[in-house]
């Protein structure tokens, strides 16, 4: 029986694609590049904001990344001002999280989003202190798919990795769970397609949170 559920943030518990698309578009626009659409942003996110900026610049035509360092600073400031832009919970997720809490299951968020922005975003959608733990990029925690953050959260919960179920929407998340020795759940409502998730053989693939409730009944 699982005693904890650890969730990725972007594309898993909160739909943040508009905030990131808006912020990265404003960033590359400072250098005269065209706006990015949500489809490309979904492909560029998942590995931290530095990779997002790098991928967006390369796609936009900055093949030598001459604007990279400046763009990082611009994006950090821009995203700080826009991280709550049109963010919302995914359908069925608030009800599922309440179900888990009623069952006494510990719930946590492990994300490559910067820690301060992660806390701000989660609290805006779900309220303060709703999750038992939130761990974002920073404070010496290596980004996913390194399992360090997953191990740290399991340790804070005083649980073994095998007692934790890890949820995410990208290959990075599937690797994270596997690297940490946790069973993984691939969610198809996020930023990547089912085919990408299947390639990493998660224990479960779901298209709505209700599809995993039976595991806790």
Walkthrough of the structure:
There is one protein chain. The chain is of the alpha/beta class. The protein folds into 2 domains: 4-15 and 87-216, Rossmann fold; 17-82. It has 9 helices and 8 strands. It has helices spanning 17-29, 38-44, 49-60, 68-82, 93-102, 115-126, 148-156, 171-179, 194-198; strands at 4-7, 14-15, 88-89, 106-114, 133-137, 164-168, 183-187, 204-206. The strands form 2 sheets. Strands 5-4-1-6-7-8 form a 6-stranded parallel beta sheet, sandwiched between helices. It has a two-stranded antiparallel ribbon with strand order 2-3. Helix 1 (17-29) crosses helix 4 and helix 3 crosses helix 4 (68-82). The longest helix has 15 residues, at 68-82. It starts with a strand and ends in an 11-residue tail after the last strand. The mean pLDDT is 96.
Report the count of strand segments.
8
Query: What is the class of the largest domain in the CATH system?
Result: Alpha Beta
Can you tell me the CATH superfamily of the largest domain? HAD superfamily/HAD-like
Name the average pLDDT: 96
How many structural domains are formed by the residues? 2
Content of β-strand: 15-25%
As a whole number of angstroms, the C-alpha radius of gyration is 17 Å
Helix/strand order, N-terminal first: EEHHHHEHEHEHEHEHE
- What is the overall number of helices? 9
CATH topology of the largest domain: Rossmann fold
Shape type? globular
Spatial order of the strands forming the largest sheet: 5-4-1-6-7-8
Low-confidence parts lasting 5 or more residues at pLDDT below 50?
A: none
Instruction: Please tell me the CATH architecture of the largest domain by its name.
Output: 3-Layer(aba) Sandwich
Distance between the amino and carboxyl termini: 10 Å
Structural class: alpha/beta
Question: What profile does the largest beta sheet have?
Answer: 6 strands, parallel
Proportion in helices = 40-55%
């Amino acid at each position: 029986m699982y005693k904890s559920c650890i969730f990725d943030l972007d594309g898993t518990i909160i739909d943040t694609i508009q905030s990131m698309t808006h912020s990265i578009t404003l960033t590359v626009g400072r250098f005269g590049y065209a706006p990015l659409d949500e489809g490309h942003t979904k492909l560029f996110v998942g590995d931290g904001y530095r990779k997002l900026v790098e991928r967006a610049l390369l796609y936009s035509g900055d093949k030598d990344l001459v604007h990279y360092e400046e763009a990082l600073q611009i994006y950090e400031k821009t995203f700080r001002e826009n991280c709550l832009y049109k963010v919302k919970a995914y359908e069925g997720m608030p009800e599922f999280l309440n179900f888990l809490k009623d069952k006494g299951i510990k719930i946590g968020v492990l994300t490559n989003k910067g820690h301060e922005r992660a806390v701000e975003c989660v609290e805006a959608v779900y309220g303060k202190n709703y999750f038992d733990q939130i761990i974002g990029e920073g404070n010496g925690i290596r980004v996913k798919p390194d399992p360090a953050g997953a191990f740290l959260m399991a340790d804070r919960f005083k649980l073994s990795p095998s007692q934790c179920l890890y949820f995410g929407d990208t290959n990075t998340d599937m690797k994270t769970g596997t690297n940490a020795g946790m069973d993984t759940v691939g969610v198809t409502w996020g930023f990547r397609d089912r085919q990408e998730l299947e390639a990493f053989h998660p224990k479960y693939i779901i298209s709505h949170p209700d599809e995993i409730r039976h595991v806790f009944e």
